[in-house]
Write a structure and sequence with these properties.
globular, mainly beta, 6-stranded antiparallel β-sheet, 119 residues
Amino acid sequence: MFYNSMDGIGGNGAKVFQCTVCGRLVTRSDRFLSLDGKKRHNHVNPSGVECDFHTFYSCPGAIALGNATSEYTWFPGYAWRMAFCRQCGQHLGWHYERTSKFERPSEFWGILLSSVASE
């Protein structure tokens, strides 16, 4: 399928997750992050759109843009920003940042299953 090498992505995950638009490597399965005992989450946004996504501790192929907000967060204690593919700008999901020094982890990514292809 897709595969683009990326400096610094490393990892030995069984699966790679790549942007469905340009094929850039976003992250790997060895970077999954379990929150509340799950690495896959399903939430509905205020517009009624269902969002099915995995959480990762690192996504080198993604970039977070905009100001972080706690409004409508699905993870209390965290603010979010939109996450995009570093190469083509496709919306991939969200980057979450803690709002207090007591939250662990300090940050993580929520990547939409519909925005990445895995192999």
